[in-house]
Design brief:
The chain is mainly β. A hairpin with a 4-residue loop joins strand 9 and strand 10. The radius of gyration is 28 Å and the shape is globular.
Length: 201
């Protein structure tokens, strides 16, 4: 009888060991995939002294976006895969709120100090593989109105969402290839866009 109980006891120990080993071998849950990034961008040009206007809208299907967040700065870049516009933003870390969320004004001439966002915008008159031409606008040499608004930031996944607007008034038409800016048509140019779930490096 004693031998039978010993045998049963050993069988129970073996079963418990197998069960524990099975639990240990269970794979950890697969992390949920990051939500898809979505981007939009719209550029409008209203020409002064006329009712003429032109513009274009890009959707997330045609857009590229990337960003990086380091102890020194937050940077974002948006452009169509094939198009004439590209815009980038950079905010120094000491300009960010504790939770990153907020509305940040663009730096501008003649005094960039009150602003928080260094901005660069390129409008190409031609942009093809191996050949491009256009005008680069920047906070260091242009008057820029607008803001970068961050509405969501997931620190664990490093995902950021928000919107932006940029306006520059009385610009020589960037699509006019002439050399004399005073003879060109002038326009008010505005760029707006949204970004959702951009993954930060």
């Amino acid at each position: 009888m004693k031998t039978l109980w010993q045998l049963l006891f050993l069988m129970l120990l073996a079963f418990a060991a197998v069960s524990c080993g099975s639990k240990d071998a269970d794979p950890s849950p697969t992390p949920a995939a990051d939500p898809a990034m979505e981007l939009t961008m719209t550029r409008t040009q209203d020409f002064l002294g006329t009712t003429a206007a032109m513009g274009i809208t890009y959707t997330h299907v045609t857009m590229l976006g990337r960003g990086a967040f380091t102890p020194q700065e937050l940077s974002l870049y948006f452009a169509p895969k094939e198009g004439l516009d590209a815009i980038s933003f950079l905010i120094a870390a000491d300009k960010l709120t504790a939770g990153v969320l907020g509305t940040y004004s663009l730096k501008s001439q003649p005094d960039p100090n009150p602003g928080a966002v260094t901005t660069r915008y390129t409008l190409y008159s031609k942009n093809t593989t191996g050949s491009s031409a256009g005008v680069i606008y920047g906070s260091s040499w242009n008057i820029m109105l607008g803001e970068l608004k961050i509405t969501s930031y997931d620190a664990s996944r490093r995902l950021i969402s928000g919107s932006y607007s940029l306006q520059m008034d009385n610009l020589p038409n960037p699509f006019d290839g002439g050399v004399n800016n005073t003879e060109k048509e002038h326009c008010n140019l505005k760029v707006t866009g949204t970004f959702t779930h951009v993954k930060l490096e």
